[in-house]
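Per-record layout

source: Thalassotalea piscium
name: Enoyl-CoA hydratase/carnithine racemase
length: 245
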Amino acid sequence: MDNLILSNEKNNVLTITLNRFDKKNALNKAMYSELCRLFNYAEQTSAIHCVLIQGNEQCFSAGNDLADFLQHDGKEEFVAFKFVKQLAAFKKPIVVAVAGPAVGIGTTLLLHSDYIIASDNSKFKLPFSQLGLCPEAGSSAILPLKLGHNKAFELMVLGDLFFAQQALEYQIINKCCKPEELLPMATQVAESIAKLPQDSVLTARRLLKQTNQAAVEQALVNEAKEFTRLLETDDCKKIMQQFFG
């Protein structure tokens, strides 16, 4: 793994730190595999009551590593798809600390999280159509429920950049803060959740998610099918080739 993903357990919180800052925390196959392992560990470990995902005060994630798309042979499922299915089915609370770029999966994973804090240097973008691709991580089901069709279409198809204050208005995040406040604040929130009666927290979370769970699961299936198909289109291949010069 070369320490591209760091993890630490303290006060019943598993903190997962994205640590590929030279690539703006773009997630590659190895990182997704480690995320799957850590989420499986957290699910099965009774002492872990909450998961915190973070980068640092300047960078969260630039999204998927596009090089993985070029190398995919089409014969096996993307590890990224395995991760988002695991994320959608995860039963424990997830807190996320966002700073700097939150692109693609860097934004859509927030839709499965429970408490998100973003520093005021955050920049959100869903560039699916600009890459010749389609929404992923169940976002085609979740985002229209939050924003309505028109605004969800604007963000996912036009791919307009938006910032922390707008993300707060869109109810994608819970709170804005200064960069230097981000990680301590996120840790405090995660530890506060972890101190609560676990059965009560898990029950509340399950009830809150139950109405939309079937729709999200179906969206994951539909998105994976279309995403894989679009990767093979001439438009997408041309865009990828231009991206890599």
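summary: The chain has a mean pLDDT of 94. The radius of gyration is 17 Å.
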